[in-house]
Each structure stands twice: as C-alpha cells, then as structure tokens.
Specification:
binds zinc ion; 8 helices; about 200 residues; mainly alpha; elongated; about 50% helix
C-alpha cells in the first residue's frame, strides 16, 4: 500500500508526450485527486476523517490546491535527499526547495494535527486532539505527518527515483533488482537503448 506522502509526490507525472503533467494544476483537478486518495488521508487522521471530509468540499478547494502544491515541493525536496546520492528525480532536480525550509514546512504542517489522546467509553480508543478545525490545515497536516513517518521509518531505504528518460516518479523498490517504477518504464527504456545501439552502430 502506498502512503499519502508518496501519493502527493506522484501528482507530478510524465504526460506521455515528453512533458510533465501536474494533477494539482487546478482546484477541480486537486479536488478530484483528493477524492481518489481520501483513504490515504483517513489512514493518517484515523477516525477523524469526518472532520476533514467537508460537506461542501468544492468550497474549501480554491486554496487547497495551492497548499498541496507548496507542501509537495517540500515532499519532493526531502525525497530527493532521501534517495541514493546523485539520483533525485529529474523533474525538479534543478529547482528543489532548500532542505531546511522543507523540514520546517512539514514539521509545522504536522504540528497542526496536535497529539493523540486516549478516550475510553466502551473500549480504549486513540483520538487526535487537533490544534485546528480548518479542514485544509488538517489535510496538509496529514501530508506532513505522512512524510515524517515515512522518512523516519523503514520504508525510506526502498525509496527510488525512476531513472527512465522521461519518468519523474518516486517509488518504493519491491526487490533489489527492480530498477524502474513500472514495467512500462522498463520496456520503454529497453526499446530506447536498442534503438540507440542500432543508430550508433
Ligand atoms: Zn518510471
């Protein structure tokens, strides 16, 4: 299962025509992306998803896209530092946010989630005691928390930037021989290399 942090990083993707597509480029696109990834947010916020899933989601979205784009810059800057040296994704390697700024941003975002408290009515349950009621701050906070848990956890060692020519994806390596993010990238690269060999010879 993927995590919210990886899903946010993956909102920049190769568009199939040599360019880069941004899944958060408009408020509508950001809302659609979020609708698809609600479960990942719920995984971080636990039982408090109800507070975040606003009945008029469209109304809260004019700004959410911008805030997601901001924290995505932090996520990708930290991912670029986490992958093997010299191998960040080419998509934004030249314009990465400063790592200290990125750390500040994800830590501050996660702070908004507050802490967890134990409640005990019928059975003991953990509940977030948030510092805010703002659904956007909670969403961005969930992204921050997800990045922190991912980078401080065991999966960080499996983070890779796909080296395919036009791919911009970060992915989790499933086994040590996996080079590409997907079979499609592997096939495309094999074809490219074959073509280069033929034209060179
Ligand atoms: Zn790829």
């Amino acid at each position: 299962m993927t995590t919210l942090a990886l899903a946010v990083a993956a909102t920049i993707k190769h568009d199939g025509h040599g360019g880069v597509a941004d899944l958060l480029s408009t408020p509508e696109a950001a809302a659609a992306w979020l609708a698809e990834h609600e479960q990942l947010v719920a995984h971080v916020l636990g039982s408090d998803l109800g507070r975040f899933v606003h009945p008029n989601r469209a109304e809260i979205f004019p700004n959410t896209g911008d805030e997601l784009v901001q924290i995505r810059r932090a996520v990708r800057a930290l991912f670029a530092r986490a992958v093997a040296p010299g191998a960040p994704s080419k998509a934004d390697a030249g314009r990465l946010m400063d790592v200290e700024d990125a750390l500040r941003m994800v830590n501050r975002a996660a702070d908004e989630l507050g802490t967890t408290h134990l409640e005990w009515a019928e059975a003991p349950v953990l509940r977030w005691a948030h510092r805010t009621e703002d659904p956007v701050a909670l969403l961005i906070g969930a992204v921050g928390r997800s990045v922190i848990d991912f980078l401080a956890g065991p999966d960080r060692a499996r983070l890779r930037a796909c080296p395919a020519a036009r791919c911009v994806k970060y992915f989790l390596q499933d086994d040590p021989r996996q080079t590409w993010c997907s079979p499609a990238c592997g096939n495309r690269e094999r074809v490219n290399r074959h073509y280069r060999r033929r034209t060179a010879g």
